Amino acid sequence: MRARKLRIEQLIKRAISTILMSEINIQSHIDFFPSISRVELSKDLSHAKIFLLFDENNKSKSDRLMKFLKNNIHSIRKSLAFHANLKYIPKIEFKLDQQLVYLQKLYDQIDQTQST
């Protein structure tokens, strides 16, 4: 089951990336393109969390992005059904990936301890 779940996560990641670049044309609405860092599927494969990475310094851009994706989630899921060719299409949820923020704070703390 684990190998199947990983395959489906990668399939969804590629399909969502293609959808955002070509069909939804996210750059015409928002002046940057986020990276999809990872996709996490639930155990029963019914829910997918799609984590996005981009410059965290601009809160208004991230808010605009999340609002845009939330408003277009139905069409994104419909396109996912076409591209992914899965029997059941999971419900999708977009989230901001906080790993880079956490790593930056960690690096800052390491730098502070080394400088003292």
Describe the 3D structure.
- The chain is of the alpha+beta class.
- The protein has a single domain, classed as K homology (KH) domain (GMP Synthetase, Chain A, domain 3, 2-Layer Sandwich).
- Helix content is 59%, strand content 17%.
- The protein contains 5 helices and 3 strands; from the N terminus they run ααββααβα.
- Strands 1-2-3 form a 3-stranded mixed β-sheet.
- β1 and β2 form a beta hairpin.
- α1 packs across α4.
- The longest helix is centred in the N-terminal third of the chain and has 22 residues, at 2-23.
- The model has no long low-confidence stretch (mean pLDDT 85).
Number of helices: 5
Query: How many structural domains in the coordinates?
Result: 1
The total beta strand count reads: 3
Query: Based on helices, strands and strand pairing, what is the structural class?
Result: alpha+beta
CATH class identity = Alpha Beta
Sheet with the most strands, sense and barrel status: 3 strands, mixed
Element string (H = helix, E = strand): HHEEHHEH
Approximate helicity band: 55-70%
First-to-last CA distance: 49 Å
Taking pLDDT < 50 over at least 5 consecutive residues as the criterion, the unreliable ranges are: none
Name the average pLDDT.
Answer: 85
Q: How would you name the CATH homologous superfamily?
A: K homology (KH) domain
Radius of gyration: 16 Å
Give the CATH topology: GMP Synthetase, Chain A, domain 3
Q: How much strand content do the residues show?
A: 15-25%
Strand order of the largest sheet: 1-2-3
